[in-house]
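Hi all, posting the design record for the shared folder.

TITLE: backbone redesign
STEP: 1 of 1
STRUCTURE INPUT:
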């Protein structure tokens, strides 16, 4: 009775969250460390947090001097206008633009859980992934060509070793570069590589193929950063004359009209611009990144290794 009387005359005031889109995106960023991740643990990954930070910058720019958008304003009409602005005015790739729309929908659903009103059309707002049309991988013949190419530069020699090794274990760049001698173990008489994937948190076991042993006969290559690795991979493939004209996407510095900004003789851009992913036809070595390892592994070993094993790896 005492509690009832006290609560009646002194009601607890619940703090309500702001329903402004900008505030809701910031709320997700601020509470990232206590949010459940895909591994059912606590804390969103660094890349996931960065994705929301990029969304905050983009949405702030889009909103500019307009009346601040509220969560319930995110409907089908808004989705189309926002997507059009991302692709045609800001020159973002279709896949990146769609991803930002999906991130925005996630923010809205998070707000809805806390009682903030959302549009009845929210689920119909179009984001999603576009169909992958340009899958870049290195064939066994191209890998052999790379292996036999004469390379003098030690940094490029190490990069070639990472490239060949990566194409035989199929891991993302970040996981590939963290492999050390402790990851090599023997299980039931078989030599394998065991590691925990950064992105998924899964523990996986990769059989060491005969070709993998041959590549690593002199030990693992020297450590290198993922940024340098991507640059060096392109240089290695250029030396190996992997230059077939191939349709794909690469990151370029572009002006406000989406046109590539050239560099001067010192390698500096002649004017300011923004980095964007641009689709076109380029010599294949210009399209090579660390992810080529993953795609080459899956493509080249399909039909050789059991499909279930390839998927697990």
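Okay, here is what came back for every position:
SEQUENCE:
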């Amino acid at each position: 009775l005492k509690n009832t009387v006290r609560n009646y005359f002194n009601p607890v005031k619940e703090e309500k969250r702001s329903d402004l889109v900008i505030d809701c995106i910031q709320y997700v960023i601020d509470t990232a460390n206590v949010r459940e991740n895909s591994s059912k643990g606590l804390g969103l990954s660094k890349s996931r947090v960065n994705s929301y930070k990029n969304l905050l910058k983009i949405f702030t720019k889009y909103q500019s001097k307009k009346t601040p958008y509220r969560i319930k304003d995110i409907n089908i009409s808004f989705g189309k206008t926002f997507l059009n602005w991302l692709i045609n005015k800001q020159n973002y790739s279709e896949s990146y633009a769609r991803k930002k729309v999906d991130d925005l929908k996630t923010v809205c659903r998070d707000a809805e859980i806390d009682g903030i009103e959302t549009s009845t059309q929210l689920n119909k707002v179009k984001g999603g992934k576009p169909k992958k049309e340009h899958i870049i991988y290195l064939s066994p013949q191209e890998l052999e060509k790379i292996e036999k190419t004469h390379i003098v530069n030690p940094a490029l020699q190490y990069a070639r070793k990472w490239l060949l090794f990566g194409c035989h274990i199929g891991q993302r760049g970040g996981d590939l570069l963290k492999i050390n001698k402790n990851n090599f173990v023997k299980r039931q008489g078989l030599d394998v590589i065991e590691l925990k994937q950064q992105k998924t948190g899964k523990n996986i076991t990769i059989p060491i193929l005969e070709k993998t042993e041959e590549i690593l006969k002199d030990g693992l290559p020297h450590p290198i950063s993922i940024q340098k690795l991507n640059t060096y991979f392109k240089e290695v493939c250029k030396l190996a004359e992997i230059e077939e004209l191939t349709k794909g996407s690469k990151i370029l510095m572009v002006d406000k009209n989406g046109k590539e900004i050239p560099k001067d003789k010192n390698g500096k851009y002649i004017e300011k611009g923004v980095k964007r992913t641009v689709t076109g036809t380029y010599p294949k070595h210009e399209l090579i990144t660390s992810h080529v390892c993953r795609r080459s592994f899956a493509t080249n070993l399909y039909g050789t290794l059991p499909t279930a094993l390839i998927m697990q790896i």
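COMMENT: The first strand starts at residue 184 and ends at 187.
Let me know if anyone wants the other runs.
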